[in-house]
Inverse folding.
């Protein structure tokens, strides 16, 4: 097979179909929330399920199960949302929309941020934001501007395997204790 010339490559790139603009999930947030966990943008499994952290290898629900001593892994989405709100924890993402093939944060393009100021208006007692991973943490200055404590936590994604489960659990538990939701 012959190599593409420069013009052939330009023509091929120009005829590629652009990725669709994906819409994130709505926040899980009760008016009395004290802590909101911010991810970057839902992965493919979460978007397909319409539920946060739906990939079976994501450690989010396992970590919260360990912190709270309840089984959120076996729970359905409605039960998980109920348990979060009962414990005054919310969930949302930094980005409202983006283009991305697959689920890796490094592939996010054309990201449009969520209005993080809405968190303060919707939950006036909010005292902390926990960023789930480095991509979410890029919005830490926006979160600090809300006048809350900001915690940058290790990602629960299966792509972030450099920390052990126990090390992640300890970091997450510390942030949850500081916000009074452990």
């Amino acid at each position: 097979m012959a190599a593409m010339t420069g013009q052939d490559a330009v023509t091929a790139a120009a005829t590629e179909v652009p990725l669709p603009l994906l819409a994130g999930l709505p926040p899980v947030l009760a008016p009395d929330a004290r802590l909101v966990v911010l991810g970057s943008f839902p992965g493919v499994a979460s978007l397909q399920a319409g539920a946060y952290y739906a990939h079976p290898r994501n450690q989010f629900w396992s970590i919260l199960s360990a912190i709270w001593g309840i089984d959120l892994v076996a729970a359905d989405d409605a039960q998980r949302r109920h348990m979060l709100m009962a414990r005054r924890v919310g969930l949302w993402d930094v980005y409202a929309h983006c283009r991305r093939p697959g689920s890796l944060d490094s592939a996010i393009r054309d990201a449009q941020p969520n209005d993080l100021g809405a968190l303060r208006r919707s939950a006036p007692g909010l005292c902390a934001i926990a960023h789930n991973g480095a991509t979410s943490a890029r919005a830490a200055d926006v979160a600090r501007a809300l006048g809350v404590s900001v915690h940058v936590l290790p990602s629960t994604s299966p792509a972030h395997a450099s920390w052990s489960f126990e090390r992640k659990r300890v970091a997450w538990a510390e942030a949850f204790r500081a916000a009074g939701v452990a």
Notes: The mean pLDDT is 92. Residues 22-178 form a domain with the Uracil-DNA Glycosylase, subunit E fold (CATH 3.40.470.10).
